[in-house]
Design a protein that fits this description.
The protein has about 325 residues and is α+β, with helices and mostly antiparallel strands. It contains 11 helices and 11 strands. The strands form 3 sheets. The chain has a 7-stranded mixed beta sheet, sandwiched between helices. A two-stranded antiparallel sheet has the order 1-11. Strand 6 (about 165) and strand 7 form a beta hairpin. Helix 1 (about 10-20) crosses helix 2 and helix 1 packs across helix 11 (about 325-335).
Length: about 325
């Protein structure tokens, strides 16, 4: 049985923040990144959660990630905003974009934001959820270091390239879709490798291109796209939007998120925000979304994608989190 340790949200956040501050990260950036990783852990997105702390810290210690970076914002056109993450963590840059873009969308009807010289940005759905809290519809895209080959290819050129969509709803439980174009997010394989657990066949291949259930071999190989050729095509679309469009690296040019070797990855993220009031009144749109959500819930054995996060958040708030004791020990060593 894997050893677990019970810890409160506050204690875990402070522990991670301390580990980052001791790893050449500014207190303000450490706070933002720690909160993002803990929120991912709470929501059950453990591949984007505390399993990332040690690798993040190792990268900031050697300067692969600049822990003291301050994102730089530039308005390119009335509805277009660019953020240079300055080879720092993605979360502070995206927070800056989330502060600016809702105002731009409210003014222009639609807004486009791009972040370059960026890094792993965790749970794409959390960005979409924050946009929904501002009453905005959103689409979030990002590229990652290469993991997926073109369909029938034998060399990874595309990332697992997360895609999220968010919409405000009339009950405040905003509708969020969050997925990677790989069969699963690479973080799930990373998490399995840390626990020495097998993965299902169909998730990834080894470096020889053969499907494997060994997560360590999978991390050396390639991810498989969902939906076959269609998934690979969507990966390419996201690749072009989140790299060529905004001046970030292609996936095959980006060094790994997982270790301290190599150069800053300089990946990119795209955030599109739409003000529903551009077409109808905002209350009208939100009420219609609520009607659809209730129509789905009226059917037996159905559920709203992403809705389990609300139960997980309540449970964590009440009972704390049960986390891998080995990971907590490794984080504590950094403090």
């Amino acid at each position: 049985m894997k050893q677990k340790e019970k810890i409160s949200i506050h204690e875990l956040t402070q522990l991670i923040k301390s580990a980052f501050i001791n790893s050449k990260v500014s207190p303000s950036n450490a706070d933002i990144v720690a909160n993002a990783l803990v929120k991912a852990e709470i929501d059950g997105k453990t591949g984007h959660g505390i399993s990332r702390v040690v690798s993040y810290a190792s990268q900031s210690q050697v300067g692969k990630v600049d822990g003291f970076a301050k994102p730089v914002e530039k308005k390119l056109k009335p509805s277009v905003v660019s953020i240079n993450a300055c080879n720092g963590f993605a979360y502070p840059a995206l927070d800056k974009l989330l502060h600016t873009l809702p105002k731009v969308a409210a003014s222009q009807g639609i807004a486009l934001g791009g972040v370059f010289k960026s890094h792993h940005f965790g749970v794409a759905g959390h960005i979409a959820e924050k946009a929904a809290e501002h009453g905005m519809i959103s689409i979030v895209l990002g590229n990652t270091p290469s993991a997926i080959a073109p369909w029938n290819g034998n060399k990874a050129l595309f990332g697992t390239n997360p895609l999220a969509f968010g919409s405000p709803t009339d009950d405040g439980k905003h509708f969020i879709i969050d997925l990677a174009v790989s069969e699963v997010a690479r973080g799930k394989i990373l998490n399995a490798s840390l626990k020495n657990e097998k993965i299902p066949y169909g998730w990834a291949t080894d470096k020889e291109g053969k499907q494997t259930d060994n997560p360590h071999e999978a991390l050396k190989g390639m991810m498989l796209p969902f939906g076959g050729a269609k998934g690979a095509a969507i990966a390419l679309m996201i690749e072009l939007l989140s790299s060529a469009l905004i001046g970030a690296n292609f996936a095959f040019e980006a060094d790994s998120f997982l270790d301290a070797n190599g150069n800053p990855p300089n990946v990119g993220q795209i955030l599109i925000m739409i003000d529903p009031a551009s077409f109808v009144t905002k209350p009208s749109y939100i009420n219609r979304v609520g009607e659809m959500m209730r129509a789905i819930n009226d059917q037996d054995n159905t559920y709203i994608p992403g809705s389990n996060r609300f139960l997980l958040r309540e449970k964590a708030k009440k009972d704390g989190l049960s986390v891998n004791a080995k990971i907590i020990k490794e984080i504590t060593k950094l403090c």
